[in-house]
Design goal:
With about 170 residues, the chain is α+β, with helices and mostly antiparallel strands. It has helices at about 15-25, 40-45, 95-135, 140-170; strands spanning about 5-10, 50-60, 60-75, 80-90. The radius of gyration is 22 Å and the shape is elongated. The model has no long low-confidence stretch (mean pLDDT about 85).
């Protein structure tokens, strides 16, 4: 087996995506229900950005895909990824392509978590700073304020990184 690589779908990949959709439909004996067209795929995936597609490639050829979109869990209070479809062409099954796609999606999710940690840290710093300034209007933050901001952001990012690392340790 050669090394697997990945790439995100780009405009111009509509026919390739549609071929995978037809492959899923054929596998599930539902070919007569496929109404997707390259135009619809272009509109909803690339123009309106309602979903994303990750390809797994073997020797530069797309052999599998995962179609997913971002969601939000009200109970967990955080964003996630919903995997709509994962499909590997029959002649490439048993080579680890599907498992590799799932691992890559998990990696994307974990790196997104670190980005969210960064955004939350910055937001938390500004919330704390604004609350403090409202309570003590004569206070000047200066260097101590910036130091506190850096510590807050680093703590949020370190926590997210720790969670990412822990996720990598799970087999």
């Amino acid at each position: 087996m050669s090394e697997l690589t990945f790439r995100m779908a780009q405009p111009g990949d509509e026919e390739t995506i549609l071929s995978f959709i037809r492959g899923i439909a054929e596998y599930e004996v539902m070919s007569d229900q496929v109404v997707a067209t390259p135009e619809l795929i272009r509109e909803w995936i690339f123009q309106k950005q309602k979903a994303e597609v990750l390809f797994v490639l073997e020797q530069g050829k797309e052999v599998g895909f995962a179609l997913f979109f971002h969601n939000f869990s009200t109970f967990l209070g955080k964003a996630g990824i919903y995997l709509e479809d994962l499909f590997v062409r029959p002649e490439y099954r048993g080579r680890g392509c599907g498992k590799a796609l799932l691992k890559k999606l998990a990696q994307i999710t974990r790196y997104t978590t670190v980005g969210l940690g960064l955004m939350l840290g910055v937001a938390y710093y500004f919330m704390v700073r604004n609350t403090y300034n409202a309570l003590v209007p004569e206070a000047k933050s200066g260097l101590a304020g910036w130091f506190a901001g850096i510590v807050i952001v680093l703590c949020f990012c370190a926590g997210s990184s720790l969670m990412m690392w822990l996720g990598d340790q799970i087999n």
